[in-house]
Amino acid sequence: MTVSSSLRLDHYRLLGRSGLRVSPLCLGTMTFGTDWGWGADEETSRAIFDAYASRGGNFIDTANFYTRGTSERLVGRFIADERDRFVLASKYTLNMNPGDPNAGGNHRKCMVRAVEASLRRLGTDYIDLYWLHVWDDTTPVDEIMRGLDDLVSAGKIVYLAVSDTPAWRIAQANTLAELRGWSRFIALQVEYNLALRDAERDLIPMAMELGLGVLPWSPLASGLLSGKYSRADLEKQRQAEKARASWGRGR
Description:
Layout: E1 13-14, E2 21-22, E3 27-28, H1 42-54, E4 59-61, H2 70-79, E5 87-92, H3 108-122, E6 127-132, H4 141-153, E7 157-163, H5 167-180, E8 185-191, H6 203-210, E9 213-217, H7 231-250
Parallel strand pairs: 3-4, 4-5, 5-6, 6-7, 7-8, 8-9
Antiparallel strand pairs: 1-2
């Protein structure tokens, strides 16, 4: 079976309205590590990484929260010998220290602490693409964009991106950044697949208008579209969700 040239991992393309060249398929590493009780151990994670990299793949996505930081540590070890060849992406927002209200969120304190911790785990002095992981509905947009721009100026991150945030907020953030001369988001990460097409209503049109590259996550709808589940499996899941909803109303 031949692979279309447009999907070859070494057939690089520009990410959004930037000059950054990335593979058409990004390697997500949320399951690198078994700290959550499931996922891939180091040997299996390494095999996945090697298969991707050997075909010219250069775009690696992780997050501080993934497998309690193990994903970042593994990725850092895997790319160490050729760090500059890879476009390394990580994220911040989710709370890494339950009990500390400032260990999560989009605000400056969390942002600065998170990027420094990620750099240590990744064993590098810069992150190519830094994602705001999810909108917190609390932090003012100017605080976020100025804080991220400061990190770019400091050389700790190179490009900015945003995930799981309303379209109007992203448009507001990038418009403010353009007005103030700050770094802007160049990419959008959003849940998008054949079973969930909500992003077509506003997020994707917004991204096209503002020149953001779109990276869908969960393209197989958590395995629903992979064919591994039978109708009986899906009906069992539906009944379980229905029972949980009824229990919640009963409370």
